[in-house]
Amino acid sequence: MNVITSESRHFERSPGYLLATLTAALFLAVGCESRQGPPPVSTDVAEAPRNSEVDAPRVEPRLCTAVAILLDSSTSMNQSVRGSDGVERPKHEIAREALERIIDQTAAQVKKRPDLSLELGIFEFSSSIEEILPMARFEQEKARAALRRVRPSSGTAIGRALAAGFQSLGRTGCVRQHVICITDGENTSGPSPDAIARELHRKTQGEVAIHFVAFDTSARRFGFLKNVNGTVVEAADGGELDVRLLEIYSKRILAEAMPGE
User: Fold this and answer.
1) 71 and 23 share one domain
2) Which domain holds residue 153?
3) In Å, what is the CA distance from 2 to each residue of 5, 9, 18, 217?
4) pLDDT by residue, tens only, the chain of 261 residues
5) Could you write out the DSSP letters of every residue in the chain?
6) 141 with 201, same domain?
7) 83 and 158 in one domain?
8) HEC readout, 158-204
9) Do 92 and 32 have their domain in common?
10) Are residues 123 and 252 in the same domain?
11) Residues 31 and 97 in one domain
């Protein structure tokens, strides 16, 4: 049996006793919270970036052709290969010059056929994506100036670049839509291009044609393209890159863009 004396009742009323009681309660509360762990992170917030990357805007269709060029600007594009002139130079310089020749060819076609309705947008991608030429009616000098701004950086976000290209195409409403991607490596940042391409192919009912140029790398890395209205070709150097881009533009894009042909 516990015996409560006057001395013990006096101790329970003392400041020291009250302080000890409050301290014990505080330690007990902290201990319970630490065992419960931190509050869970909202899954809605965590999932939002992935969902936004596969958005495919649709607007009223109109008769025109739209092209989104995706240019790899990862650090590996600083490596040198042989250019079309036989001189070894950084791959990003060779790719820029090959695209400039395509732009000049396009300008020549537009001059001969003013009724050619063509829109062009250019994106560079490393671990991030930058729209260096917003999608708009083709203008030769603006396209050339945009390519001169490309500067290699780290990472290779091919999946996110595909999503950005599809989104810019979707906002044009053009009935003929093409993505051209020049890359020398595999995806190292963000969602895989395979997953993004399949989801966008489904959302756009396969209306967008995807053209990959595997520059100084194997086309086998992009085998998924055959299932999403896509093709891939290899280019080991600048000479082959010129040929591949010319084939894509002449046979697939400009040829179908010519009114009445």
Assistant:
1) no
2) 59-257
3) 10, 13, 21, 85
4) 444 444 444 444 444 444 444 344 443 443 443 334 433 332 222 233 344 457 778 789 999 999 999 999 999 999 999 999 999 999 999 999 999 999 999 999 889 888 889 999 999 999 999 999 999 999 999 999 999 999 999 999 999 999 999 999 999 999 999 999 999 989 999 999 999 999 999 999 999 999 999 999 999 999 999 999 999 999 999 999 999 999 999 888 988 877 655
5) -----HHHHHHHTSHHHHHHHHHHHHHHHHHHHHHH-SPPPPHHHHHHHHHHHT-------EEEEEEEEEEE-BGGGGSEEE-TTS-EEEHHHHHHHHHHHHHHHHHHHHHH-TT--EEEEEEEESSSEEEEEEEEE--HHHHHHHHTT---BS---HHHHHHHHHHHHHTT-EEEEEEEEEESS---SSS-HHHHHHHHHHHTTT-EEEEEEEETS-GGGGGGGGGTTEEEEEESSHHHHHHHHHHIIIIIIIHHHSTT-
6) yes
7) yes
8) HHHHHHHHHHHHHCCCEEEEEEEEEECCCCCCCCCHHHHHHHHHHHC
9) no
10) yes
11) no
Residues 79 and 32 in one domain: no
How much is the pTM?
0.79
Q: How far apart are CA 221 and CA 186, in angstroms?
A: 7
